[in-house]
Amino acid sequence: MNTGVGSTEPMNNAAPLQLFHEWVEGPEVALATATPDGRPSVRMVLLKSADEHGFTFFTGYESRKGRELEANPRAALLFHRPGIQVRVEGPVERVPASESDTYWATRPEASRRSAAASHQSQPVGSREELEAGVDAQPAQPPRPERWGGYRLVPDTYEFWRHRDDRLHERHLFRARGDGWDVVMLQP
Ligand SMILES: Cc1cc2nc3c(=O)[nH]c(=O)nc-3n(C[C@H](O)[C@H](O)[C@H](O)COP(=O)(O)O)c2cc1C
Q1: Is residue 32 part of a domain?
Q2: pLDDT of 69-111, one tens digit each?
Q3: Whose CA is nearest to atom 4 of ligand 1?
Q4: What is the best residue among 28, 58, 59 to mutate for testing ligand 1's pocket, by most ligand atoms within 8 Å of CB?
């Protein structure tokens, strides 16, 4: 893994999105949301893209996370990989329906039928009931309106790297104008 910078090298000129791609491989990420009155919840999702538009993942808009994001559209992402963690925070918006349609069309048929049948985060009586809902789907179900993408637009990144002496490295990036302020944090 190329972690981009040495311990004595300042990160002041680094673009955090570029650093993110140098540090993080693989799509698994923990997504934290909260209710408007501040009750947090966290779960894993798969990141589909991270680019100049933001960090995009797909889910059920009526799921617990979806309801929390609709009421309180801010979130935090945590990427943990061996020896590092990267935290990304910011406001969240739905991606355009056309973009959700495009991604929906790339998903395997079984995934589309499962998502079309599932009212994510709602109770269900049994596995059989769930599977009957999938069986009732057509072979090529259209994307339900309740399923689609969200995009987190980062206003904060933190890059953390392990050191054996526990004097771990932390750099906090905060959006300012067109650029980023960077500070080193104590471990
Ligand atoms: C590795 C991993 C990846 C996952 N990816 C997604 C995903 O991309 N979208 C999604 O809706 N749920 C995904 N899930 C399931 C979620 O963790 C969660 O169970 C589900 O979205 C319901 O969460 P909620 O009730 O808090 O809304 C994933 C689970 C794991 C373990």
Answers
A1: yes
A2: 999 999 999 999 999 999 999 999 999 999 999 999 999 999 9
A3: 45
A4: 59
The whole-model pTM stands at: 0.94
Q: Report the DSSP pairing between strands 40-51 and 54-60.
A: antiparallel
CA–CA separation, 5 vs 139, rounded Å? Answer: 49
Q: Is 27 in contact with 80 (CB distance < 8 Å)?
A: no
Give the count of domains, the chain: 1
Residues of the chain above pLDDT 90, percent: 91
Structure tokens that stand for 49 in this block: 């893209």
H or E segment and range at residue 44:
strand 40-51
> φ, ψ for residue 165 (rounded to 5)?
-80, 5
Please check whether residue 66 lies inside any domain of the structure. Answer: yes
Mean pLDDT to the nearest integer, 145-159: 98
Q: Could you report the per-residue pLDDT of 22-38, keeping only the tens digit for each?
A: 999 999 999 999 999 99
CA atoms of 152 and 161, how far apart (whole Å):
23
The pLDDT of residue 6 is 44
Mutation to probe ligand 1, out of 43, 100, 120 (largest number of atoms < 8 A from CB): 43
Domain limits for position 34 = 16-106+145-185
CATH of the domain at 85: 2.30.110.10
